[in-house]
Give the backbone structure.
Amino acid sequence: MRTIETDVLVIGGGATGTGCARDLAMRGIRAILVEKGDLTHGTTGRYHGLLHSGGRYVTKDPQSATECARENVVLRKIMPHCLEDTSGFFVTTPWDDPAYGDVFVKNCRLTGVPVQELSVQEMLRREPMLNPQISRVFEVMDGSADSFLATRSTALSAEEYGAQIWTYHHVVDLVREGDRVTGAVVEDLRNGERIGILCAYVLNAAGAWAGKIAAMAGVTVTVLPGKGTMVAMNHRMVNTVVNRCKLPDDGDIIVPIHTVAVIGTTDVHVPDPDVYGIEPDEIQFMLAEGDKLLPGFSQYRALRAWAGVRPLYKDRDVVNDRDIPRTFKLLDHAERDGVEGMLSIVGGKWTTYRLMAEESVDALAKRLGNTRPCRTAEEPLPLPPTEHQTTFRPPIRTTGPGARVAAEVEALQRAPLYWLGKHLSEVEREQSFADLICECEMASRSRVLAAIDAGAKNLDDIRRDVRMGMGPCQGGWCIYRTTALLFERRGEDGLSQANSNDALLHFLQARWKGLVPVLWGDQLRQARLDELIYVGVLGADRLRSIAEQGGGLVTDNPAVATEYVKA
Amino acid sequence: MDHIELSLTQSLDHCIKCNICTSACPVAAVTDAFPGPKYVGPQAQRFRHEGQPVPDASVDYCSGCRVCNQVCPTGVKIAELNARARAQIVAERGLPFRNWLVARAGLVGRMSCGPHAPLLNFGLRLAPARWAVEKVIGIHRKAPLPASSTYTFRAWFRKHRAPTTARRQVAFFHGCATNFYEPHVGKAAIAVLEHNGFEVLLPKQQCCGLPLISNGDFKAATSAHEANVQALVSYARQGIPIVGTSTSCTLTLKEEAPEILALHSEDVQAVAAGTYDIFEFLRSLAERGELKTDFRPIERHLPYHQPCQYRAHRLGSPAMDVLSLIPGLVLEESHAECCGIAGTYGLKQEKYQIGMDVGAKLFAMVKRSGSDLALCDSETCRWQITHGTGVASKHPIEILAEAYGLEL
Ligand SMILES: Cc1cc2nc3c(=O)[nH]c(=O)nc-3n(C[C@H](O)[C@H](O)[C@H](O)COP(=O)(O)OP(=O)(O)OC[C@H]3O[C@@H](n4cnc5c(N)ncnc54)[C@H](O)[C@@H]3O)c2cc1C
Ligand code: SF4
Ligand code: SF4
Ligand code: SF4
């Protein structure tokens, strides 16, 4: 077994782990990050897409609220290209306690969450589709965030500073010598090779899987996986994040992100973060809740459903699951369990990932005798090669709580904030409309090729980079095109036609999973056409016999398979 | 939001990306500048956001011919989405003077119509003048501009003596072209209607607003439509049919203006429901056995092009149906999607060639027929056909008047 040595081994390529790797590298600490799937394979890639203002937590979880409010501003400065300044409303519908509005405002003030009440008339002017029976509206600094792009950009920065990012490397064991964790054994899922990693510290950032990782070192960390399901609708009927003004509950937020509007989420305890399904009643419930915010919501075209698992950390002294705080926690296993060489960072939100990384790396740096300060809040992230170097700047927000920050972000004169028309405008500028691979999401050939060249290990990786296959047709036209490009590009590196076939089947299956829960109306019609294309025309149902895993790709590996139990 | 409005704005959700519209679009077939209906319609729409800058420009190459709407298997209102997207561009970037001008058919007509028309027409036939117009205004030097008439249709109508035997009434919507360029089409229509026992009333009216809509000037289009509705609604309410010879004008009153401009008042709906294309109206008379059939035979074989704006009425082929009653007359249908002019589209310097290429199929068919006359219901299409083939063109109502042996 090959063995490699480093200072810190970060486990988990979600927002948190990747943020840690960047922070470590920026402080000059050697780090290797291992992730069993692609970056964002876990919860980070399956979340709701909301850059929290903090409003959601002002009453039940004030600390989280304050953290979100601070990080919201920081992220706008360091990753404008990943964020859309949608702004957000908290609205009191006829189903909500009208008294909560005043409590909400008071608690916003207490927790430092900028808020401003609007007239219902003004709300309807800005979002005419919202329920006219809404009685009060509060505007906050919510935004929407592309976690794929953010994590990719963070990893790129980490690599620029010398960190190593190993995706498709599965931690199969931790090495414990006496009271000390000294390293890990990882398996390269592309070829099954096992590699030993020796390190001074292991940083367990495995999210909902953190308990499984800790168990490898004989330490108990109770992470309760709370599954949340979301439904993406075919287009944005609102351009502002809309939250119900009440204590956090299921199906109470609509997030406009990229070309879709996403309603979410549910919260169902599941025994294992790798085994869960999407239930029909969850979908039905959320669409019905959507109708309360936006009459007719359930009649729009649903594109797809998916689920992620919340990494809720249950402290040893908490008896009742409902009292679990939503803030993050850094566990020092030396203090807590008498096991040296390992820290776990658990809980939290996407919005606070950078802060989580900062605290974790502060603790590690101290132990390693490194005194360099954290700079991740000041230095902006680089753009990955799949991104357009856009020069166009949409006008900045001039009203609402976000106006001041928008001006501040703009003043930095770095990459502009993301805006909905971005990819269309770039395609128009380049006149590349005849060269689109994914037409629905406007992914041009050059961007798809950039994603392939960046090291995609299957088609799903390309999807995360350029949104290929995420539009209305869910891959009907782009899957076979992308497969052909992959083969063209990697054929010389040993990727065979059979490997390409396997990539195609794998991705078709992955897309199908998310379609099954919403198969009615337009999306059923779409699925029928897609079936005609893949089965009727291309004979994909007979491809299995000439499909083969390999060629540097990772497809049906059990380590990265998510079981949808019933769906 | 009103259900008609929802059925338009939400129709992008029905797109299953089948590309049938893209294969059928006559513009996409002839130019790379236009990405096609699927792209500029339901696809691009998902990237548009009223509060943000307009991200695209290629939608301006849509001619508005509505072929895409007709072929779409799921009912996406592509042409309407495109018209609205163009209006957003205009609202943001302003209307170029050229488009402002060509969108005002009535204004241009009023200025050029009259005793000075021959002089003006002569001037506009001179190459240097057209070269200057192209350079300064952007109207292609070869584009088919109509010759202005020395008198207006309305002026003629005021002096016209109607028979006193009429039993029923219709209101006539003449549109700009008949009033300023082709009064003879209106005269033929009046003659046919009167011959069938109608008293023809002439309501006050403005341009139907279609050129304003298709050039994205929704503000002006809205006031035009509102004025027309105000002038026409009393007729509609009394059950007096509003009949027009311009298929695009009647389509605008019936459907385009209400849908695209989101005007859905009861008055608007009443006018929409009470408006008929002239052959739609005559065909319904024929179906009830009320159309006079004292036709003289016309032993001719003529090519006929049903304009795209007429097909958009979804009525089948009323003109073919009625003209088939004329003994001896044989019409050969063009089966061409579009003549390419699409109102003011093919006049524009950057779109002229596209328009000619779109029309090529139709021109070839007309030339192949060997006829010296082609029939078509829409005025701009007639001018385009004549421009593309050198063959004279007439409105089918003129042939019908001839078959009745009516003096014009
Ligand atoms: C339904 C839902 C909606 C949410 N919406 C929002 C939102 O809108 N806004 C917001 O701010 N937050 C949201 N959150 C919270 C947020 O998504 C998570 O807190 C955050 O993404 C967690 O990131 P992470 O990096 O800690 O964990 P993860 O992203 O789960 O990363 C852990 C990684 O560890 C990897 N891993 C596990 N085991 C191994 C192993 N043995 N070897 C190698 N790698 C391994 C996994 O593959 C995974 O990629 C949401 C959460 C859920 C569940
Ligand atoms: S209206 Fe005509 S030109 Fe425009 S997209 Fe449709 S088919 Fe093409
Ligand atoms: S024909 Fe209709 S469904 Fe097909 S791509 Fe065009 S708009 Fe979409
Ligand atoms: S010009 Fe004629 S055929 Fe063409 S666009 Fe008009 S009505 Fe259609």
